[in-house]
Amino acid sequence: MTKKRQNILVALLVIYSIAIIYFMFFGFGRPNIHNNIHGYRFSIIPTGIPLWFPKTLSFLWIFSLGNLLGFVPFGILIPMIFDIKYHKFIFIFAISIFSLEILQMVTYLGSFDTTDIIINSIGATIGFLSYKIGNSFKLASQKIIGTVVLILSFSFIMITFAEIFNKFI
């Protein structure tokens, strides 16, 4: 990879990280909600996987899907920039998300939610696997199309799994 390409990818990763942090801490009116919160909000024990196929479009469904798909780019950009194995990638990613969730709680700009950590990590995993498999194709167009198709396929499979799993818990 050329130095210029790597610099562009690093810049994209930094900009995307800033955007995600903005939405985690300041998006959706979080600072206004801060004035009404008294005490820490947290959810430690997951009660299901908050993914489902919508019967109607709702803010909650878009928010849940965003928790999955919003973190897919990390699974693509990080292995593009760094030669990293999955176990190291997901460990660093999970620690980072865990830290941000704690920071949301202690600043009263959100809550600590283990379900969010799980869904965000699944999204990053979908990106990582899609990139690694898609990148094995020969032509650049096949790599891009393959990665996009894999992201959509893995997301569909995850939502299907969540629907089935949630019926049995």
From TrEMBL:
Keywords: Membrane, Transmembrane, Transmembrane helix
Pfam families, per the entry: VanZ
InterPro entries, per database record: VanZ-like
Domain VanZ-like residue range list: 14-133
Sequence intervals crossing the membrane: 7-28, 59-82, 89-111, 145-165
Origin: domain of life: Bacteria
Protein name: VanZ family protein
